[in-house]
Amino acid sequence: MTDATREDDLLAALPILSRTFGLGEVRSREFLAHGLMNRNWRLDTDSGAYAVKEITDVPLPKVRRNLAVLAGLASDGIPAPAPLAAASGDLVAEIDGHGYCVLPWVDGEHVEGTELTLDQVRDLGAVLARLHESLRRHAPGPLPEQLPAAKVGDPAKADRAAVVLIDRLASAPVTDVAKAAIEALDERRDLITRHAEARPETDVPAGPFGWTHGDFQYRNLLRDDGRVVAVLDWDRLGVRPYGEEVARTVQVQFGVGGVFDLDRVATFCSGYRSVIDLPEADLADAVTRLWWKRMTDFWQLEFYLDRDDPTFGDMFLSDEALLHWWTDRADEVQAAYAAR
């Protein structure tokens, strides 16, 4: 979809969005190009500034369910901007086959984890823990009696997937990313073979679980004057082990440039565990599961090929460097996660 098509879709939807959510006259709009999945705009209107999201990757009933939680979280002091509601109470407008939601605009900036001070990192861990506590009180639905099994990736299946991707890349236009990815996939096949015995032994994750954000990372956090002022993008709200969200958040925030910033890993986990006492063994299990998931998953390359988007190719290569570093220093990484 071209930028022009995006603008055409929004322009056609603006009058209905304005009436539905009481925005008043739209004075200016700006497409926000930094989103990876959904499409987002800033609108300046008679009644204020708003963020508009066109929902493309998540079923609309799930979006409605997730958005309904935000007002409760905000009442607990979680910086979660609550969406505007139509007169009918609906939080999503469906226009010409597209779904849109509107939220108040929050000024701030996205700051990568390695740019944060250690005090900010510790506070961020505590913010995530408080968010988990708040979701217990304002859950969008009941928790299952036990967490569903999380299938451990099969080494042979992962190897076959790598071979398929190598063939696809070899038949695609020759680029530096494609050449580097083919070489990385050959190395990944060897890595999987050498470390298959270290994969998780069961499909049942350890530790407490509950409703979690699902993508708690710097692209979905806004900061102003050093503080988190908005947690964005609740599309992936779901039931998971708390350790899984802690482990993934740490990897995305502090696994940068092909290495983990172990001081910040330790500080974040210490901040989280100052609020929720997540047992060391349960967190270690989550870290191992995340490592093996990264070992056997190729989603960035699939997006790179399917969407012809070089951003995902670069993400794959960056994460590949981290995977090798992580594998070579697994004990150091586990020790950093275990810090209090």
Helicity, as a percent range: 40-55%
Strand order of the largest sheet: 1-2-3-5-4
The tally of helices reads 12
The ordered string of helix (H) and strand (E) elements is: HEEEHHEEHHHEEEEHEEHHHHH
**Which percent range describes the beta-strand content?**
15-25%
- In angstroms, what is the radius of gyration? 21 Å
Catalogue the unreliable spans.
Answer: none
Bulk shape: globular
What kind of sheet is the major sheet? 5 strands, antiparallel
**Span of the ends, CA to CA:** 47 Å
Mean pLDDT: 94
* Count of distinct strands: 11
Molecular structure report:
With 340 residues, this protein is α+β, with helices and mostly antiparallel strands. 49% of the residues lie in helices and 16% in strands. The chain has twelve helices and eleven strands. The chain has helices spanning 3-21, 60-67, 70-75, 118-137, 155-171, 176-195, 242-254, 262-273, 280-296, 299-307, 310-328, 330-337, and strands at 26-32, 39-45, 48-55, 93-95, 98-104, 209-212, 221-224, 227-231, 238-241, 255-256, 259-260.
What structural keywords apply?
about 350 residues, alpha+beta, five-stranded antiparallel β-sheet, 12 helices, about 50% helix
